[in-house]
Amino acid sequence: MNPNSGHAETRHSNLADPHQDAANARLAADIKAWGRALGFQQVGIADTDLTEAEGHLHAWLEQGRHGAMTYMARHGTMRSRPAQLLPGTRSVISVRLDYLPQSQQGIATCLEDPARAFISRYALGRDYHKVLRNRLRRLAERIRTAIGPFGHRVCVDSAPVMEKPLAAKAGLGWIGKHTNLLHPRAGSWFFLGELYTDLALPPDRPIANHCGRCTACIAICPTRAIVAPYELDARRCIAYLTIEHPGPIPEAFRRAIGNRVYGCDDCQLVCPWNRFARLSVEDDFQARYGLDQATLIDLFSWDEPTFLARTQGSAIRRIGHLRWLRNLSIALGNAPASPGITSALAARAHHPDELIREHVGWALREQASRRG
């Protein structure tokens, strides 16, 4: 990344100039218009003071609630101090891109069918990292065309960035009791991305928290991962267990996982603010290979080449074939007893990997217990 210090000095030295302030305000307005023209539903600007969020992050890490996500602690204060990630950072442009691919009623129908595999709706289509990154690069190029070279870095959930606190400071929503970002007219079915810049842009105002007394997300969580309002213990979260957790999934959580084989959307489905969420207009976020309708048995039959082929360009690929089979084994164990499921599991009972053998064995025992 090129901070372009010469340009930065010119802009920053004029911060007290009312004409420069007006120019910065016009540029901020233009950036928001350019972002909307690129398809972002919302664009906001935040300053870089994350002192409060840094305190929450340190407390969370000290309690070990990040589980095996060691990368959350690896970079020290870089995550909460943007100028450590990109020297010279003064403003962060935060963007929102809606991804809801189907009606929430349709999502609930899939979740309620134990024979079908439930995949978190953000992962049904193309990998969001690629979609947002490409679009943010185009936004950066549009800014460069208007003002010349400037220091910047595109961030999409792939660098030590506190995207939700930054988005909240930029006025894109508030952090709800489930720790997702919520907007009063858009709910929470959206992705976030950031453009770190050395531009002295006027920050937007945060919006008020509207969770009120509602605790629906806390009550619905299958594994009680939301241990208190605004506090998530990732070690209990199904999204963490099925995606981030590398080893055996603790038996205490297996039945609660149900048919969720990649992530969990329960807290979003029950949130009353999501009645305002709109379906995505992005073709990239529509389901591929029928993953929104797929059965557990069908997905469990995929060998590794099939898995790699059908998750090409998808966020699902990052968990690998073994975790895919591990998660599906649990879901098959939780399904109503059937000869087809028993046969599918038995075919992998002697899998060369111990992780799969253990989970398949558990699933076979669960199936046998239901046959009585």
Automatic annotation (TrEMBL):
Enzyme class, spelled out: oxidoreductase
Species this chain originates from: Thiocapsa imhoffii
EC number: 1.17.99.6
Biological function: Catalyzes the conversion of epoxyqueuosine (oQ) to queuosine (Q), which is a hypermodified base found in the wobble positions of tRNA(Asp), tRNA(Asn), tRNA(His) and tRNA(Tyr).
Location in the cell: Cytoplasm
Gene Ontology terms: biological process: tRNA queuosine(34) biosynthetic process
Coiled coil: none
InterPro entries attached to this UniProt entry: 4Fe4S_Fe-S-bd (IPR017896), 4Fe4S_Fe_S_CS (IPR017900), QueG (IPR004453), QueG_DUF1730 (IPR013542)
Cofactor: binding details: Binds 2 [4Fe-4S] clusters per monomer.
One cellular component term from this protein's GO annotations in UniProt: cytoplasm
Residues involved in [4Fe-4S] cluster 2 binding: C221, C237, C264, C267
Protein name in the entry: Epoxyqueuosine reductase
Domain 4Fe-4S ferredoxin-type: 202-231
Gene Ontology MF, one: 4 iron, 4 sulfur cluster binding
Gene label: queG
UniProt entry keywords in alphabetical sequence: 4Fe-4S, Cobalamin, Cobalt, Cytoplasm, Iron, Iron-sulfur, Metal-binding, Oxidoreductase, Queuosine biosynthesis, tRNA processing
Keyword Protease belongs to the record: no
Active site: D157
Needed co-factor(s): cob(II)alamin; [4Fe-4S] cluster
Reaction catalysis annotation: epoxyqueuosine(34) in tRNA + AH2 = queuosine(34) in tRNA + A + H2O
Similarity comment text for this entry: Belongs to the QueG family.
Binding site for [4Fe-4S] cluster 1: C211, C214, C217, C271
Taxonomic superkingdom: Bacteria
Biological pathway: tRNA modification; tRNA-queuosine biosynthesis
Record text on subunit structure and interactions: Monomer.
Keyword DNA-binding: no
UniProt binding sites for cob(II)alamin: R79, D157, L181, L192, C264, D265
PANTHER family per UniProt: EPOXYQUEUOSINE REDUCTASE
